[in-house]
Amino acid sequence: MKLFTQPESGIQPLLEGLRSARKSIQILIFRFDRSEVERALVEAVQRGVQVQALIAFTNRGEEKNLRKLEGRLLGAGVTVSRTADDLVRYHGKMFIIDRKELWLLAFNYTHMDITLSRSFAAVLRTPELVGEAIKLFEADVARTHYRAGCDDLIVSPANARVQLMNFIRGAKKQLLLYEMKISDVDFMQLLAQKKSEGIDVRIIGRVSSKDNALNVRSIPLRLHVRAILRDGKEAFLGSQSLRKLELEARREIGVIFRDGKAVRQMIDVFEHDWASGAPPVQTRAEAMLDIPAHSIAKSVLKNIHMEPMIERVLERVMGGRRSDIAFEPAEVTETIREAFRAEIHDAVVNALGEMAAGAVSTVHAVKHSDADRGKYTDEQNSAQPRHATKSAAKHTQ
After folding, report:
1. Strand-pair category, 200-207 with 174-182
2. Alpha helices in the chain (DSSP H)
3. CA distance 36 to 10
4. Which of 79, 209, 225, 285 is the most buried (most CB within 10 A)?
5. What's the CA gap between 207 and 220, in Å, rounded?
C-alpha cells in the first residue's frame, strides 16, 4: 500500500491515481472545488475510461455547487448518481481505480483540505478490501441496503461502532489519535479506561469538555483527519469521528490496515505534530458562545416532533411490506434525537461564532472609518490658513 500525507503531498498523487485508470473510476464526492480533479475525470472519459461519480445529495451550504458539478460531469460523459437522503449526510471520501485499487481519503477534494490541512490518504490493493468498497459504492448508487462483509472496511452506520470499539480495546501499549471531536460517551469511557491501564493514550484534536482526563493537544495546522494508531503496528484511517451522529446516522467510510511502513510514517507525522502542539484552551468568547448554543439546541429539539416523522420513514423503508423485523419508532426516535443534538449544537456554535465574528468585523470597520474621517478632518483643518480657521470659529460662535 501507499500513504500520502497532507498538506505535504498535495494534489499531484490524486491526479496521478486518476490518470492511471485504464478501465474504470468509481468516485464518491462530498465537497469539491478542485478543477484539476474534474479535468482528470473528464480526460479519463475522453480516453475511454468508464467514470462513475456518486455525489452527496447535500452538504452544509454547498448544495448548489454540487448540482452544478453534476451538470458539468454529465455533459462531459461521466455517469452521475446522487446519494439517497435516508442518512443525515453521506460524508465518505474514496475512489476506486479499475476495480483493483482503493483510494481511501480522510479529506475532501478542496483547496482547504488538501493544501491547508493535516490529513492522509491510503492506497490499498487487497482484493477483499477493494471488493467490499465496490460493494458499498454500488449499493449506495442503487440506494439499496449495505450489509458489512469485511471487518477492515469501517462503514457507518453498518459496523463502525463495533469495529472501532474492538480496535481500541485491543491496544496493549499505545493509542495515538487524530480526532476532529470525540464526544461519544462509550468511546470516551473506553479511552479513559485504557489510559488507567497504563496505555499511552494521546489525542490531537478535540474532546468533549465533559472529560478532562485524556491527554489532548491542538496543533497550529488545521485538522481534517480521523485516525487511530495502535501499538505501532496497526492504523485506522477514515472520515468518522468518535461521535454518535457520525457512527450511527451518517455514511462514513474508513479502513484498518497493518502495513508497517505506512503505520510508521503516520506515527512519525503524529509525533512531529504532538511536539509542536499544546493543550487546547477554550477562550472566554468560545465558552460564552457555548452557553446559548446548548440552550438553543435543546429548545430546537423540543420543538421537533420526530416520532411521526420516524414512523413515516420506517413505512417508506418497509415499502408497506410486512417484516419479521420489529421497528420501535420511539427507540429509533431517541437514537436519532441523541445524534442530532450534537450536530445541532455544533451548527449553532458555528453560526453564533460567525455572527460574533461578523459583528466584531463591523465594529472594527466603523471604528476605522470614524478614525479615518477624524484623521481626514484634522488634516483638512491643519491645511486651512490660520485666519480661515479663526474666522470659521468666530462664525460658529
Report:
1. parallel
2. 12-19, 35-46, 63-75, 111-115, 127-142, 160-169, 185-196, 244-248, 260-276, 284-302, 306-318, 329-383, 386-396
3. 12
4. 225
5. 17
23-32, 67-76, 265-274, 309-318: segment of lowest average pLDDT: 309-318
Assign 86 to helix, strand or coil.
coil
Domains of the chain: 2-276 (3.30.870.10), 285-369 (no CATH)
Task: Identify the three-state secondary structure at position 80.
Answer: strand
Q: Is 334 exposed, middle or buried, given 0-12, 13-18 or 19+ CB atoms closer than 10 A?
A: middle
pLDDT tens figures, 216-229: 999 999 999 999 99
CA–CA distances in Å: residue 135 to residues 53, 127, 300: 15, 12, 38
Q: What is the DSSP string of 59-79?
A: -TT-HHHHHHHHHHHHHTT-E
DSSP 3-state assignment of 28?
Answer: strand
For strands 94-97 and 89-90, give the pairing: unpaired
Helix (H, G, I), strand (E, B) or coil at 351: helix
Is 234 in contact with 267 (CB distance < 8 Å)?
Answer: no
Strand 250-257 relative to strand 234-238, pairing: antiparallel
Asked whether the predicted pLDDT for residue 73 surpasses 80, the reply is: yes
Q: 71 pLDDT band (50/70/90 cuts)?
A: very high
Q: Between these two residues, 365 and 281, which has the higher pLDDT value?
A: 281
The H-assigned helical ranges of 151-239 are 160-169, 185-196
